[in-house]
Design a protein that fits this description.
Elements (H helix, E strand, L loop, with lengths): L3 H5 L4 H23 L6 H25 L4 H31 L1 H22 L7 H23 L5 H18 L5 E3 L2 E3 L1 H26 L4
Antiparallel strand pairs: 1-2
Helix pairs in contact: 2-3, 2-8, 3-4, 4-5, 4-6, 5-6, 6-7, 7-8
Length: about 220
């Protein structure tokens, strides 16, 4: 039986698997929000907001990759999608800085990181390899967070090791997204975007459990 959805699904099987894995990311991010539920605090709000925005960006990604859209419609959706991803990274960096230097440092740096995210999104629209500047922004943010959590782990900061592992997996995923890698898993074809989503999903348990431990160990922050 045909429905509006089946009539408008994109034909490319690689785009179909990318859309499906984007939807899985949205579900994973929603579960992360639930797992991070607890006493209200600045840091908890930062991390839950990061995963909440990721839900929205992943749903948009599902639409962009999964449905037949005009080029104009696709472009209109890519702009807010990239901005949402930039905000996720800004909040991630804010969480790391708050863990290392405290709530006030996180509150001070968050507006600057949001401005930087918007700048990279703007730049992405104006260069030939559109998504590359954003990937560079993501790598910069993740390298900064990685250095912070490696240092915190050296000082036995609760949860830092799990977060470090999650960051390393996220950086691997970002590297895959910039490549032209394609794989077939069973009968399903995956391009670099779909593979990026699958690898990123494996980082979620480490990130979420690490953050849960840091929040429980520092409830006053």
């Amino acid at each position: 039986m045909k429905t509006w959805l089946t009539d408008n699904l994109i034909d490319d099987p690689r785009e179909q698997t990318t859309a499906a894995t984007d939807l899985l990311l949205a579900v994973g991010a929603y579960i992360a929000i639930w797992r991070l539920h607890g006493e209200p605090s600045w840091r908890r709000q930062v991390w839950q907001s990061a995963f909440g925005i990721l839900v929205g960006s992943s749903v948009l990604g599902t639409i962009v990759h999964g449905l037949r859209l005009s080029e104009a419609s696709r472009e209109r959706l890519w702009q807010p999608l990239n901005l949402l991803l930039g905000l996720v990274l800004a909040l991630f960096a804010t969480g790391a800085i708050s863990d290392r230097w405290g709530k006030r440092a996180g509150q001070w740096v968050l507006p600057l990181l949001v401005i930087a995210a918007r700048g990279f999104v703007w730049l992405s629209r104006r260069v030939q390899r559109g998504f590359l500047p954003f990937i560079l922004y993501e790598i910069t943010v993740m390298l900064t967070a990685l250095v912070i959590y490696i240092d915190l782990d050296r000082h036995r900061y609760p949860g830092a090791r799990n977060i470090t592992i999650g960051i390393l997996i996220t950086m691997l995923a970002a590297g895959i997204q910039t490549s032209s890698l394609e794989l077939r898993i069973g009968k399903l074809p995956f391009d670099h975007n779909g593979l990026f989503h699958l690898v990123q999903l494996t980082a979620f348990p480490f990130l979420v459990e690490g953050v849960r431990v840091t929040l429980a160990a520092n409830p006053e922050s």
